[in-house]
Amino acid sequence: MKDSTAQTDKKAGTLAASDVAEYLRQHPDFFVDRDELLRGLTLPHDSGSAISLVERQVHLFREQRDTLRRELVELISIARHNDRLFEKSKRLLMQVIEARNLSDMASVIDDSIRGDFGLDAASVILFTDQPVVDGSHGALHVVSPDQARSRLGNLLEGDRAVCGQFRESEREFLFPSREEPIVSVALVPLRQEGLIGVFAVGSCQPGYFDQSMGSLFLSYISDTLSRLLPPMVQRHVEQSPVRGVAAESS
């Protein structure tokens, strides 16, 4: 009997803290009806004094509550921000759809991005070798595909928005003839059965756009532009010879 007791004491003496923790995890109701144990347990506090286990649990629950509250406030703020972006994007696209020509579309994009979105610049650059009537106006510019590839290079390879501080030559190509330089850019390729151009927005504030920012609404706008621009450009291409003949006959 003594040997058995000694063996039990030996096992108890070598019981690891992890074993106790695992046992309590498997028996979360262990302290039920054991109030005397709870009252006897104490934990160190940041102030240096000891607190009971119940007080410690209350403290942890309050910390968890405050953390969840902050996360909820942040989620609500993000949702409101996204809702405002959606409304602005919707207004812009409705005006783009109603635009009668490339000149109107360029004005709408420029006014919306700088006025409604509060950014410093917008640019829609179309890639074509064909002559386009009123091809360069406001936010709209027409360049040859070769020129675009030589100036923008790898920026045209992907399908998603590219954000950050571009090289000075790239920023000047995207936003020409500006007195105050653009230093931060977000660019989205426009694709419709191939690359047809780019849509870019810029800010004079360094670091305004970075690689970690979301690009859902930029992609939403660019997807719509990719579908609206080709037929509108084609109409302007088809009109250009007629205007040329009219000019010669006069």
Write structural notes for this entry.
The chain has 250 residues and is α+β, with helices and mostly antiparallel strands. It folds into two domains: 19-98; 101-235, GAF domain (Beta-Lactamase). 55% of the residues lie in helices and 15% in strands. Strands 4-3-7-6-5 form a five-stranded mixed beta sheet. It has a two-stranded antiparallel ribbon with strand order 1-2. α4 (53-98) runs antiparallel to α5 and α4 runs parallel beside α8 (216-249). The model is unreliable at 241-250 (pLDDT under 50).
Largest sheet: 5 strands, mixed
Task: Give the helices and strands as they follow along the chain.
Answer: HHHEEHHEEHEHEEH
Number of DSSP strands?
Answer: 7
State the CATH class of the largest domain: Alpha Beta
Provide a short characterization of the protein structure.
With 250 residues, the chain is an alpha+beta fold. 55% of the residues lie in helices and 15% in strands.
